[in-house]
Design a protein that fits this description.
With 165 residues, the chain is of the alpha+beta class. The protein has two domains: 1-85, no CATH class; 88-165, 2,3-Dihydroxybiphenyl 1,2-Dioxygenase, domain 1 (Roll). The protein has two helices and nine strands, in the order βαββββαββββ. The relative contact order is 0.17.
């Protein structure tokens, strides 16, 4: 048995419509399915995975425009009777952020700011398992951290850290 990749990320949000304004209208992701009744949705019978009995939910499946895959990259779910919990911080157990790769972090960060997105901090440069990169974090409408990064271009930014041992 071998795992071929990540199928999708499922995120519970307080309001699907408000989240779609961010992920679809601001970020430009594509929505292919939207607002399905709970009992018509695969997995709806798995009520043991909820904090309490749920009988309704709204769902939006979000895809990359350029993807040749039948699977969504992000599934947003909202419950009309309210959601519980909140976003996680980097030092808390669980998934703490979504990350998207972009070609030009500076122009992308400028576009996000112009569209009124709540930016979590300035563009920063760091090295991780994937190598040197430039990144910026923003908040989605529920306060979840969303990261955008570009691969590090040594010719463009040659004054930054060398690989660590």
């Amino acid at each position: 048995m071998s795992i071929k990749g990540i199928s999708h990320i499922h995120m519970c949000v307080s309001d699907v419509e408000r989240s779609l304004e961010f992920y679809r209208d601001i970020l430009g992701l594509t929505v292919k399915t939207h607002v399905q009744p709970m009992l018509d949705r695969p997995g709806a019978e798995s009520l043991g995975m909820y904090s309490r009995l749920r009988t309704t939910r709204s769902v939006a499946d979000i895809y990359f425009d350029n993807a040749d895959t039948p699977q969504p990259v992000l599934v947003l779910t909202s419950h009309p009777d309210g959601v519980e919990g909140g976003p996680r911080k980097f030092d808390e157990k669980g998934i703490t952020n979504l990350a998207f790769q972009v070609d030009d972090i500076e122009s992308h960060a400028q576009m996000l700011a112009e569209r009124g997105v709540n930016v979590a901090g300035d563009i920063s440069d760091f090295r991780d398992a994937a190598g040197q990169m430039r990144t910026v974090f923003v908040y989605d409408p529920d306060g979840n951290l969303v990261q955008f990064h570009e691969g590090f271009n040594r010719d463009k930014y040659n004054d930054y850290a060398e690989p660590r041992d």
